[in-house]
C-alpha cells in the first residue's frame, strides 16, 4: 500500500496548490496533492493561457497595421483555424501529462479524486469509482480549490446552457454572434478576442466596462470596443433569456431591449469551490469563500483559526486577489510559513516580511489583455482615498511620449500614478495603451520597494522608450525644492 501520511496535504492542483506543494518539498517536508480534474487547474486549460492565446494573433496583426511599412506586408485576415490550433497547443490539448511530470520531478505525491476534509488534519480522496483513500497530514492541510463561474439567478439562464469562461477559452469554433453578460475582465477580454476573430459581439454590463480600473483606462477600452463594432449596453442587466429549438438565444434586458445571439457567455464573477469539501465538519458553511488571517490560516465564524491552526487556504478560494501570480505569491508565503512552523522557527508576518502576502493588499499587479491593454498595480485613486490615504494623482498622455510615437503611428494611451503625499511614495500606477503590459513591473518594484519619489528621479528611463512615461509623470507631479 502506498504512503498515506505526509507532512502537508494540499487539496487542488491548480497553479496555487502546485506551488504550495513544491515549496513544502523544497523546505524539506513531504507533500501530497489531491486533484479531481486536470493537474494545472483553471489557469492552464480554461483561463489565462488559452484566453491569452486567443488574443495574441489579433494583437500582433494590429501592431503590424499600425506601421505604414509593415502594414503593406499584411495582405489578409486572421487565420481563425490556425489561431484555435495554437490556442489548443497552449492548453496542452487539455492533457495534463506535462504537469504531472513536473509534480513527479518536484517530489510531490499526486492523488486523483475529489478531496474533502475527513477530520483533524485528515483528507479523504474519493476516486471516480467511489473508492475512498484517507490521507493524514502531520502538520497542515492547505485548501487551494480555486473558483468557478458564478451564474446569476436570471429566469431561463441555467436552461440556456450558457458559455462560461471555460467554453469561451476552449471553443472549437467562433460563433457568428456572441452575447456577453458582464463587463469585468473576462467579459472585456473575450469581447476583444471574439470580435477580432469575426463574431458580432454584444456586451451587456450593469456597471460599464472594467469598473474597477482607473476611469481613464476604462474609457480608452470602452471607446475601442465601440470602434471595433462591439454593441455595448453598459448600464443594463439581463432580465430573462431562452434558447429556441434552433439553438438561437433570445435575451431580454431589464431596459426592454431584445438581443438575438448564437451563443451567450456569462462573465459575472466567480464562486468558490468549497462545496463537498467537508467544511461542515469544521463548522464552516459549504459553498462560501474561506476567510483567512494574515498567515492564510482559515478562520471560523468567530474569527479564530480552525482547530489549532492546521487548515490554510490560498489562491482564488480565499478571494484576496483572484489572479494566478498573486495566488502563487501566496503559495510561496504560506509554503515557507508552514515549513518554518514545522521546524519551530520564527515566522515573519510583518508588512513585506518573508511569510506575509502584503502585496495582496498593497501591490496587486494585473494586466488586462484588452485592446488597448490595461496594466495596473496597487491602488486606484478611489481605492486609496477610501483607504484613508492622503493621495494626489497625476495622469499623462502616453501617446505624447517619444517611445510610444515610434512604437505605433497614432498611438493612443494614458498613464497615471497615485502618490501617498504623507510618505512621498507611489501607491498606485495604471497604464492603458498598446503593449503597456511590460510597464507594470517597474511600477510594482517602485511600490513594493516604497521608493521615495526623490529617488525615482534617478531611475532614468532610456530614450526613446515608452518607459519615458515615468519621467513625464514625475514632471507632472512636480519636484520639491
Ligand atoms: C477566463 C479567465 C481568464 C483568466 N486569465 C487570467 C490571466 O490572464 N492572468 C491571471 O493572473 N489570472 C487569470 N485568471 C484567473 C486565474 O485563472 C485564477 O486566479 C487561478 O486559476 C487561480 O488558481 P487556483 O490554483 O487558486 O485555482 P484553480 O486554477 O481554479 O485550481 C483549483 C484546482 O482545484 C481543483 N479542485 C477543486 N475542488 C477540488 C476538490 N474538492 N478536490 C480535488 N481537487 C479540487 C480543481 O479541479 C482545480 O484544478 C483568469 C480567470 C478566468 C476565468
Ligand atoms: N487578465 C487577467 O488578469 C484576468 C483575465 C480574466 C479573468 N481574471 C480574473 O478572473 C476573475 C473573474 O473575472 P470576471 O470578469 O468573471 O469577474 P469580475 O468580477 O471582474 O467582473 C464581473 C462583472 O459582471 C458584472 N455583473 C455581475 N452580475 C451581473 C448581472 N447579473 N448582469 C450583468 N452584469 C453583471 C459585475 O458588475 C462585474 O462588472 C477576476 O478576479 C479577474 O481578475 C483575470
TrEMBL record:
Residues 6-330 form the FAD/NAD(P)-binding domain. It holds the Pfam family Pyr_redox_dim. The keyword Lipid biosynthesis does not apply. SUPFAM superfamilies: FAD/NAD(P)-binding domain (SSF51905), FAD/NAD-linked reductases, dimerisation (C-terminal) domain (SSF55424). The keyword Metal-binding does not apply. Residues 365-470 form the Pyridine nucleotide-disulphide oxidoreductase dimerisation domain. It comes from the Bacteria. Keywords: FAD, Flavoprotein, NAD. Its cofactor is FAD. InterPro entries: Class-I_Pyr_Nuc-Dis_Oxidored, FAD/NAD-bd_sf, FAD/NAD-binding_dom, FAD/NAD-linked_Rdtase_dimer_sf, Pyr_nuc-diS_OxRdtase, Pyr_nucl-diS_OxRdtase_dimer. Belongs to the class-I pyridine nucleotide-disulfide oxidoreductase family. This is NAD(P)/FAD-dependent oxidoreductase. It comes from Aeromicrobium wangtongii.
Amino acid at each position: 500500500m502506498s504512503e498515506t501520511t505526509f507532512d502537508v496535504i494540499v487539496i487542488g492542483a491548480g497553479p496555487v496548490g502546485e506551488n504550495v506543494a513544491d515549496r513544502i518539498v523544497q523546505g524539506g517536508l513531504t507533500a501530497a496533492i489531491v486533484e479531481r480534474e486536470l493537474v494545472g487547474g483553471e489557469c492552464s486549460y480554461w483561463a489565462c493561457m488559452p484566453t491569452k492565446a486567443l488574443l495574441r494573433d489579433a494583437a500582433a496583426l494590429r501592431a503590424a497595421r499600425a506601421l505604414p511599412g509593415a502594414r503593406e506586408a499584411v495582405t489578409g485576415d486572421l487565420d481563425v483555424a490556425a489561431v484555435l490550433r495554437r490556442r489548443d497547443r497552449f492548453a496542452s490539448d487539455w492533457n495534463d501529462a506535462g504537469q504531472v511530470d513536473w509534480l513527479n520531478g518536484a517530489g510531490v505525491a499526486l492523488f486523483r479524486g475529489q478531496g474533502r476534509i475527513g477530520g483533524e488534519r485528515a483528507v479523504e480522496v474519493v476516486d471516480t469509482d467511489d473508492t475512498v483513500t484517507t490521507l493524514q497530514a502531520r502538520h497542515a492541510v492547505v485548501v487551494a480549490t480555486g473558483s468557478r463561474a458564478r451564474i446569476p439567478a436570471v429566469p431561463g439562464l441555467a436552461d440556456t446552457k450558457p458559455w462560461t469562461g471555460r467554453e469561451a477559452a476552449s471553443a472549437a469554433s467562433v460563433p457568428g454572434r456572441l452575447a456577453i453578460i458582464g463587463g469585468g475582465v473576462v467579459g472585456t477580454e473575450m469581447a476583444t478576442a471574439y470580435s477580432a476573430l469575426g463574431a458580432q459581439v454584444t456586451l451587456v454590463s450593469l456597471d460599464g466596462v472594467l469598473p474597477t480600473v482607473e476611469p481613464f483606462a476604462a474609457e480608452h477600452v470602452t471607446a475601442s470596443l465601440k470602434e471595433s463594432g462591439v454593441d455595448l449596453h453598459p448600464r443594463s442587466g439581463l432580465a430573462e433569456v431562452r434558447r429556441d429549438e434552433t439553438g438561437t438565444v433570445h435575451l431580454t434586458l431589464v431596459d426592454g431591449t431584445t438581443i438575438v445571439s448564437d451563443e451567450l457567455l456569462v462573465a459575472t464573477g466567480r464562486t468558490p469551490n468549497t462545496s463537498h469539501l467537508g467544511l461542515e465538519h469544521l463548522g464552516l458553511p459549504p459553498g462560501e469563500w474561506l476567510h483567512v488571517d494574515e498567515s492564510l490560516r482559515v478562520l471560523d465564524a468567530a474569527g479564530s483559526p480552525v482547530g489549532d491552526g492546521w487548515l490554510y487556504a490560498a489562491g482564488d478560494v480565499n478571494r484576496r486577489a483572484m489572479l494566478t501570480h498573486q495566488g502563487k505569491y501566496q503559495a510561496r508565503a504560506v509554503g515557507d510559513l508552514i515549513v518554518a512552523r514545522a521546524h519551530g522557527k520564527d515566522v515573519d508576518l510583518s508588512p513585506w516580511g518573508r511569510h506575509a502576502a502584503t502585496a495582496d493588499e498593497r501591490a496587486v499587479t494585473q494586466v488586462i489583455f484588452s485592446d488597448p491593454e490595461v496594466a495596473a498595480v496597487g491602488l486606484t485613486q478611489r481605492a486609496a482615498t477610501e483607504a484613508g490615504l492622503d493621495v494626489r494623482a497625476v495622469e499623462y498622455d502616453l501617446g505624447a511620449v517619444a517611445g510610444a510615437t515610434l512604437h505605433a503611428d497614432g498611438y493612443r494611451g494614458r498613464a497615471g500614478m497615485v502618490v501617498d503625499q504623507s510618505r512621498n511614495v507611489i501607491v498606485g500606477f495604471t497604464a492603458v495603451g498598446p503593449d503597456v503590459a511590460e510597464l507594470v513591473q517597474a511600477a510594482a518594484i517602485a511600490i513594493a520597494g516604497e521608493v521615495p519619489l526623490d529617488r525615482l528621479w534617478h531611475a532614468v528611463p532610456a530614450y526613446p522608450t515608452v518607459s519615458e512615461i515615468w519621467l513625464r509623470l514625475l514632471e507632472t507631479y512636480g519636484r520639491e525644492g
